[in-house]
Amino acid sequence: MSKLAFEALSQQAVVGAGVLYFLAFLAQLAGRRVAQPAADGPSVLANLGVTMLPMAALVHLGALVTRGLAAEPVRVPWGNMYEFTLTATFAVVATYLATMRRWSLRWMAPWVTGFAIVVLMADSLWLYEGVTPLRDALQSPWLVIHVVAAIIATGAFVLGGMASGLYLLKERWPDRFTKVPTLEVLDQLAYRMHAFGFPVWTFAALITGPIWAHQAWGSAWNWDPKEVWAFVTWVGYAAYLHARATAGWKGSRAAVVALVALATLIFNFVGINFFFGSGSMHSYAQGLVEHLVLRSPV
Amino acid sequence: MSNTTPALSAAELLRWAWRQLTSMRTALMLLLLLAIAAVPGSVVPQEAINASALANWQDAHPKLTPIYVKIGLFHVYSSVWFGAVYVLLMISLVGCILPRCAVYWRALKLPPPATPKHLSRLPEHAKFSVEASTDEVLARAKAALKSYRIAEFDNSLGAQRGHLREAGNLVFHLSILIVLGGFAFGSLFGFKGGVVVVTGDGFSNAITQYDDFAPGPMFKPTDLEPFNFKLQKFNVEFITKGRSFGAARNFWADLAIVDKPGATPRVERLAVNHPLSVGSTDIFLIGHGYAPHITVRDGNGDIAYSGPSVFLPEGTDFRSFGVVKVPDAKPTQLGFEGEFYPTYAFTPERGAFTVFPDALDPAMSLLSYQGDLGLDDGRPQSVYVLDKSAMKPILKADGKPARLDLHPNDTVKLPDGLGTVTFDGLSRFVKLQISRTPGNWVALLGTIIGLIGLMGSLFVRPRRVWVRVQPDAETGHTLVEVGGLDRSSVSDLATEVDRIADALGREHT
Q1: Which of A249, B324, B408, B423 is most open to solvent, judged by the fewest CB atoms within 10 Å of its CB?
Q2: Which of B194, B288, B447 comes nearest A206 by C-beta?
Q3: Do A297 and B384 touch (CB under 8 A)?
Q4: B288 CA to centre of own chain
Q5: Is B215 helix (H, G, I), strand (E, B) or coil?
Q6: Are B409 and B424 in contact (CB under 8 A)?
């Protein structure tokens, strides 16, 4: 198969995954509307909605693999914003599927599916880029380790953020969110996700990041905008973990801290590339060379 | 404080302040403050990070600049207020952690506490009756609580586990100090220097050879390792299609390194992501550009200047700016400044520009000056800037400035018999960073220890369980009570108490 065919296949898989997510979403919503037969557990439609989710995720994974195969030479699909976003969305769904049974998260399916649909659409509409070879600074085994960790942590943080957000909504309007579990359960879920994400984020941002930065840029920590915001996010989640253990900050205030931390994470993911463009060494929309060049003595 | 409270003595005030500073609430506020304080440095260009972006910004904001200078917004991460936040946070951390270390140390030696009177008041509790004897139930309990530390009492036993949670917590917080210590050590004793080397040229590791050199406060020049190298070859490829069109990839340099005087040279390849180490000094490839060879003959026909001149790239398209100073020219000193275009193009609207960063059709366009270069008055001068205060443009017969447009092997005559300029050929240069950061591995070790500690503090579940047995005189059975207490944030205590109750012989009815 030619490289172009792989690229086209990857795009078709993204569309396919989007359609499957959408159908799953409809089934999940319909399943909630249909009166549930007592003691029979979730309705057929709701079941269908949850069963379709792994299928959609599989097609989504296919889109990632073919995207990597479309590059010359074959590489991991993390060369630009479009590919990062595609992978991060997959990580959210995969983390959800991995923990669904264990932490009884079936109720969360429409939220996760809806998130996947919205982000995939935005990614395809606004961030699409053709397949290009990796820049030199990205050609490193650390790309795999650093980015995998960052993306897994992002997936956990997004799910944790959903739980924290729902916590606040449910606290404000207890009667509205009847399908959502109790505040206590939401709080525990948020903590679990954040407690899982935090060490992974630490590994990505404060261990592998500096090691790679030292190799690629000659300095472990440069206070580059991306690094600053990764640090801000880290401090934000550290504050969340402390807030949860501090009287007066438990519950809703901790949830707010978690959401602020998530906002800094998303800003770092999306905003930096657009707002600080050429200023950040992580801005792969602009190019590393420019930065290298700008550092020359004048 | 109410009015009746007597004034605090100095010692009491100090103690009060210390307690406030080391409280969790203060630590939390300081953490949030640190996050907020870090933000401006990502918005405002920082001098230490991107000096030229800063210069552009300051040109564009003449009113804000003096205010920003005053509050240190161009040096956020070395500013007083940023330092104040993290120093306070560190003090708060130490003040919080050290006492907790002592508490932990004492607690480690203590056996599990005595069984509470009312086990039914614990968060998880089970009460049931079994046929087995009290001794047998206690024996079963010991088997079921294998992973716990157990203390036996009369008719009951206490068990606890998960000590490592607090240990992990303490280790994590202490590791932050190790990481900061490592970085501090590196910046105190290390150095960071930059140098531009043209292919074919060499470098030997002495302060005078660096273009810019930033030593740490405790750095000694004798710390420089006596190596030298020659830049044998440099390669770069540019992406020719797609949105990354024109981006450089696959650039590397071959260095012939002599580790110390007299050693045989070893050739090593230096690339992005592949720094070279000589002893404990690291060499990084951080940039590259063009160095056109220029020969200037003066009015007498003598060669007054010949060699490669470094032209600094101005953007990703590698349009580059450079300066040539010819102090030896007769009758007057000559100076040139202008631009280099790797792949020359010209349209009347845009003027001269480059369509591609690779040197496919290189060309230079220089303006020429005569007069005094200002090199003799002792003031240090940048090699990349032409001091035109005592120089005047060389004019053509029609009174316009003489602009020299040169392709390789072109020679252009200056007006009034001032001489000729020849574009002989093209070399590339690399910009290298050479640095030593001796504390790096300490910091790395600190982060790894910290991560391990963090996992302990998040995933180890400290828990206490008590089992009490009581013979039931009426039935001859044993009444068993199990109670559990959990200090972790996510609890499966109920499951654990159920497990123990079942192991003790509870029957489900």
Answers
A1: B408
A2: B447
A3: yes
A4: 22
A5: strand
A6: yes
Tens of pLDDT, residue by residue, chain B (509 residues):
445 556 668 888 888 888 888 787 888 888 889 889 988 888 888 877 777 778 888 888 888 888 888 888 888 888 889 889 888 988 988 888 898 899 999 888 888 888 888 888 888 888 988 888 888 889 999 999 988 889 988 889 999 888 888 899 999 999 998 998 898 898 889 998 889 999 999 999 999 899 888 888 899 988 899 999 999 999 988 877 765 677 777 788 999 999 988 889 999 999 888 899 998 899 998 888 999 999 999 888 899 999 999 998 887 788 999 999 999 988 889 999 999 999 999 998 888 899 888 999 999 999 999 998 888 877 777 788 888 888 999 988 888 888 899 999 999 999 888 899 999 999 999 999 999 988 888 999 999 999 999 999 888 888 899 999 988 888 888 899 999 988 765 667 888 888 899 888 888 76
CB-based contact A237:A230 (threshold 8 Å): no
Read off the tokens for B494: 């109920």
Judging by beta carbons within 10 Å of its beta carbon (0-12, 13-18, 19+), is residue B408 exposed, middle or buried?
Answer: middle
The alpha carbon of residue B466 and the mean position of all alpha carbons in its chain are separated, in whole angstroms, by 49
CB within 8 Å: B77 and A223? yes
Q: Does the distance separating the beta carbons of B49 and A222 come in below 8 Å?
A: yes
What number of CA atoms fall less than 13 Å from residue B502's CA on the CB side?
8
Q: State the DSSP code for B339.
A: E
- For residue A197, what are the CA distances in angstroms to A41, A112, A241, B224? 31, 17, 11, 43
The reported pTM is 0.82
Mutate to test the interface with A, among B85, B286, B312 (most CBs of A within 10 A): B286
Q: Among positive and negative, which fits the CA dihedral B17, B19, B21, B23?
A: negative
Which among B228, B191, B230, B194 is positioned nearest to B212, based on CA atoms? B194
The model's pLDDT over A179-198, given as tens digits with 9 standing for 90+, comes to 888 898 899 899 999 999 99
Residue among B274, B255, B276 nearest B265 (CA): B255
DSSP A170-229: HHH-TTT-TTS--HHHHHHHHHHHHHHHHHHHIIIIIIIHHHHHHHHHS-S----HHHHH
- Alpha-carbon distance of B266 to B301, in angstroms, equals 42
Q: Count how many pairs of residues, chain A against chain B, have C-beta atoms within 8 Å.
A: 198
Is B294:B423 a contact under the CB 8 Å cutoff?
yes
Question: Around A27, how many Cα atoms within 13 Å sit in the side-chain half-sphere?
Answer: 20
| CA separation, residue B118 to residues A44, B114, B126, B130, B481 (Å) | 48, 12, 12, 20, 10
Taking an 8 Å cut-off on Cβ atoms, the answer to whether A131 and B242 are in contact is yes
Across the interface, of A129, A191, A246, the residue whose CB is closest to B28 is A246
CB B495 within 8 Å of CB B470: no
Question: Taking CB atoms and an 8 Å limit, are A286 and B316 in contact across chains?
Answer: yes
Does B31 contact A238 at a Cβ distance shorter than 8 Å? yes
Q: Which residues of B touch A293 (CB under 8 A)?
A: 287, 289, 312-316, 318
Which pLDDT tens digit goes with each residue over B237-252? 887 776 567 777 778 8
Question: Given CA atoms A191, A193, A195, A198 in this order, what sign does their dihedral have?
Answer: negative
Task: Please name every residue paired with B87 in a beta bridge, in sequence order, or none if there are none.
Answer: none
Residues of A in Cβ contact (< 8 Å) with B24: 242, 245-246
CB proximity list for B440: less than 8 A, separation 6 or greater: A214, A220, B182, B186
How far is it, in rounded angstroms, from Cα B10 to Cα A46? 68
SS3 B317: coil
